[in-house]
């Protein structure tokens, strides 16, 4: 019988709290569906720094490379704001992305009908919204060399005497592989891809546009492809987000645009993400799953966190890493039911009332509904 | 008697159409207020390329350096999409910004009450919105070297064999001067500045944060300063934009965030901008003014363009470049009156009705109201 290996990295802030609820769901599947999960747990981010002096220990990195899937909570928090750049919590996350080569970050921005009123946008603009942002995750300005802060003391024109540098660098191969991921996903959805860059002012944007177009013309001519400047993309996301199906964009633009898109839905506490790499021996992609929300230090330890984004991230793992699509459906249905019943964590409490529950009660309700 | 020199660069698309309406306003001030404007006009963008083979002729650049203010319409359009990068319409604009050293780009995002219903956001979230984004405009990844697209043929791992590079580069001095501009502006408004970067993943972002903090601590301790990651900034702009007063950020983030902010207001056809540099001999800053909207090729030549953004840009010129604050007030009041009277270009036609007018009629109405 197959065992499904999973490395859980709760991380910082509300990460551990929401992960406790995912554990309940995993237990349910083990007990009631006879699915064997081989779950291990380790530290990442500030939590790892506190213990090891680095935001990701080598052993943890090694383990992440060996498992079928990694599930991460969140990293960072004010306690670590003044840490040196090289040991910031975020660098643990970036190391995982880079060394596992998780080049395609899938960020669905879905508006759950029961929550449409939480959006700052008008209901008619966000109701039913369902777009998927595919963000390149292992290259671009987050990783390009040269980088750093240097002294510029011998430049009398430079008050302060320092210079900060990062390099936006993309190879054609890096662009093609994430473009393929986007086209493949589009084929299973609305068959449309919009690629975003700043080809009008950046050469890396020109390369991006040309290579996405190349993949389209040579391999996916049947998918509808359009191009948009990223600033206009930000406008269009606010103006009429449902004009999009799949958006493919680079690491930095993807960071900003996917956060804006997530916020449009009013469902930030509900949004999962998957970061996928090349296929492993078992034929399934290397993968890490994490909620879109951050570590939320302001509500940490208060039982207020919504565990649904992290549980839905586990549902994505069921689907993409364990080939358990039916089980993923089951879990998603259970969450829908709980929401329809009016069960609400603090972030979901609106004028329409509902039953307020804690993080832990929400986990229990979802397991009950399974 | 002082003459006020102005170089008009209508540019492409709807640029010339909206500029015609600004001319009417200028004429009115000359005739009725005895203010002497020395207006010259020249080409920029695609229009300049068509005539000179470059998006900005040297003579035009020279003239721009000599006048009190430049007023630009818009650049770019599909006809120029396949031009070589070095002669793209946008490069004319970038040359002006760079050579005039217009480091502080002021982008107000205001929601005009009469137009609040045009926003895709709920009225209560955008009504009365009045934030000011100060975008660094002459440095960062738009200008950093090295840059370009190179062959990477000897790298067998790189399918496609090319690499695209841009460099995000900021000096401490560049950051300090735009920070000062932001703090000065904040003092005349809500006394709050929020600085946005990605200091968690980019060293240039760390330098940005440290230098803005330095200017604050040493020169503007009385202004309230906060820092936010740019991805969170995008979220917060969508969620609760009125939490901000002045936002200061770099060239690339500023491009995206200010476009998102502009779109929030529902008043894109109404938003002006000013790009300011160092003081000239007359004590006033080098300056270029332009509407936030683009060249809008889809409505070019149809009399549908809203000239208000460009006329309000001229109002900013009255205030910042000609020291004619009372006249700027007068012009802004006239525009308010016209809107209150229900006069509406196509983009402003909503369910509440109003009197539909063409670009030209809108200009006439504003002059009448003066
Ligand atoms: C935590 C941070 C490094 C990260 C990023 O910028 O990629 C986060 O914002 C995200 O989007 O996953
Ligand atoms: C036209 C383009 C070069 C420009 C930019 O990216 O700066 C525009 O988007 C703007 O914001 O003024």
From TrEMBL, chains A, B:
Q: Which organism is it from?
A: Paracoccus litorisediminis
In its UniProt entry, what is this protein called?
3-isopropylmalate dehydrogenase
Name the job this protein performs.
Catalyzes the oxidation of 3-carboxy-2-hydroxy-4-methylpentanoate (3-isopropylmalate) to 3-carboxy-4-methyl-2-oxopentanoate. The product decarboxylates to 4-methyl-2 oxopentanoate.
Q: Which gene encodes it?
A: leuB
Its family? Belongs to the isocitrate and isopropylmalate dehydrogenases family. LeuB type 1 subfamily.
EC number from the UniProt entry = 1.1.1.85
Record has Magnesium as a keyword: yes
Q: Where does substrate bind?
A: 97, 107, 135, 231
Give the cofactor binding note. Answer: Binds 1 Mg(2+) or Mn(2+) ion per subunit.
The chemistry this enzyme catalyses reads:
(2R,3S)-3-isopropylmalate + NAD(+) = 4-methyl-2-oxopentanoate + CO2 + NADH
Recorded hits in Gene3D superfamilies, A to Z, give:
Isopropylmalate Dehydrogenase
